[in-house]
Amino acid sequence: MEFHHLRYFVAVAEELHFGRAAQRLHITQPALSKQIRSLEAELGLQLFSRTQRRVQLTRAGLVFLEQARQLLHQADAALQLARRTARGETGQLSLGFTASALQSVLPRIVRVFRERYPAVELSMTELCTEDQVEALLGHRVDVAFLHPPMRSPAVQLQPLGEENFVAVFAEDHPLLACGRISLRALADEAFIIHPRQEGPVLYDQFFELCARMGFRPKVVREVTTHQNRIGLVAAGMGITFLPESLQGQAGAGVACRPLADAAARLVLAAAWHQDNTSPILGHFLTVAKAVADL
């Protein structure tokens, strides 16, 4: 039994007239009669009682009509869902993001995307840049909001913006008397920075900038999260750096100052695996670019 048999049967059952049903189906009446006889033979049931004047459903036909309608409805729903999925209108998308992304453009991107594609389920996980690259390569996330550059040719990038860093001091630090801080003025400070494995490019860039200023930084702690780094700064253990978008989260016991002469800037980009051809990903990247360009 095929689905076109069910459609033919339902049309005749609803019209109770082979001629009208044939017109509705855009086939000839003899062809429709042949299809119904073929269906009845396959089922071993008489679905219609026929006379020269009228067509009626048998009891078996009435029961079969209810089930046939359900099957056709389910088949149509499955087809529509498949088409929506192929168009990228429904499905799942997993996002990775850094803390600074969540404080900048990412919330607006997610809000606009959810408005346009409400049937797409989004999952979001905070990860450092290096962990996001590994998640992309392992196909555990579809799109990552991270800080390039990176060394994997399989990861594609769409830049979304960049920002400066600020220095974070304990609230009683004497350098806070300055409006802007030169990196050279920090030569004798103790530094609390992120571990190299979390962002080797940015880590190395920091040491290169200090070398240009004529000193090697004294790193006293390498700490994973910016919240913990800020806590150690408040405790008087040293100074750290934050993207300017995060300075509002610095909290009590510390103060931030912009850097006067440091060339380091934090770039934010959307990243994805080059093999990921999901139409949902394509829609998301289109939204991300449009929002970032506003």
TrEMBL record:
Similarity remark: Belongs to the LysR transcriptional regulatory family.
The stretch of residues making up the signal peptide is none
Example of a GO biological process term: regulation of DNA-templated transcription
UniProt keyword annotations, A-Z: DNA-binding, Transcription, Transcription regulation
Q: What is this protein called?
A: LysR family transcriptional regulatory protein
**Which is a Pfam family this sequence falls into?**
HTH_1
HTH lysR-type domain ranges (all copies): 1-58
Q: Pull one GO CC term from this UniProt entry.
A: protein-DNA complex
One MF annotation (Gene Ontology) recorded for this entry:
DNA binding
